[in-house]
């Protein structure tokens, strides 16, 4: 699904969907459990580690799910997030992000939001597709550095929410997607808070919104 005048960048295509978690696998069961508890409406409870489950596996399944959600949410507004509308990757006037992945791009580069998000989502996809980092087979152990990998992924995915809220919320409202965005973001925040996965300083661009979402549930 292309937009006229877009070429070459990922935004000219719909974001590629994340590999689905294979049906019948334990991770699939966990995902189903997560969906069922989400349906209860109690997000604080929905993010808790199910009894007897492996923390790494729970974090892995949810990280894949958040990647999918953000993929879809950003996919709805890609036509409004362009080189000209968003020449830098920002979350309001005080926060600007420069891209580096530590391997191909070691020195952080300043780039437009669509370019940054393209780099970011491709980078996350590569991590999720790496069986040594995110093993999909039962019994294959998670690597020792899994938690730090997951934290970096979630920290970066947060930036896409932050950009959407700060720069494109009017488009989200026009598309009547705000309830979808808010629910997804609230689930994400409760999840990272439950397991202390993102540093508070990193969450600063959406601090007020986070406070508001949390206060309704106390």
UniProtKB/TrEMBL annotation:
UniProt-annotated stretches for the region Disordered: 1-21
Keywords per UniProt: Kinase, Metal-binding, Transferase, Zinc
Pfam family, one: Mob1_phocein
Secretion signal, residue range per the UniProt entry: none
Gene Ontology MF terms in the entry: kinase activity
InterPro entries in the record: MOB_kinase_act_fam, MOB_kinase_act_sf
SMART domains: Mob1_phocein (SM01388)
Keyword Hydrolase annotated: no
Binding, Zn(2+): 81, 86, 163, 168
Name assigned to this protein: MOB1A kinase
């Amino acid at each position: 699904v292309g937009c006229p005048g877009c070429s070459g960048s990922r935004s000219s295509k719909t974001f590629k969907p994340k590999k689905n978690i294979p049906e019948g696998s334990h991770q699939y069961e966990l995902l189903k459990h997560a969906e069922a508890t989400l349906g209860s409406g109690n997000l604080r409870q929905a993010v808790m580690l199910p009894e007897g489950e492996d923390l790494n596996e729970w974090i892995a399944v949810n990280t894949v799910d958040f990647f999918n959600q953000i993929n879809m949410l950003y996919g709805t507004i890609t036509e409004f997030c362009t080189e000209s509308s968003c020449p830098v990757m920002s979350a309001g006037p005080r926060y600007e992000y420069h891209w580096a992945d530590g391997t191909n791009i070691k020195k952080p580069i300043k780039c437009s939001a669509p370019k940054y998000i393209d780099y970011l989502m491709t980078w996350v996809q590569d991590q999720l597709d790496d069986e040594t980092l995110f093993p999909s087979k039962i019994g294959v152990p998670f690597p020792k550095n899994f938690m730090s990998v997951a934290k970096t992924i979630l920290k970066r995915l947060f930036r896409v929410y932050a950009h959407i809220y700060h720069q494109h919320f009017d488009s989200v409202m026009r598309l009547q997607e705000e309830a979808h965005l808010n629910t997804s973001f609230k689930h994400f925040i409760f999840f990272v808070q439950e397991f202390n996965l993102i540093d508070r300083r990193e969450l600063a661009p959406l601090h007020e919104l986070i406070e508001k979402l949390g206060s309704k549930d106390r």
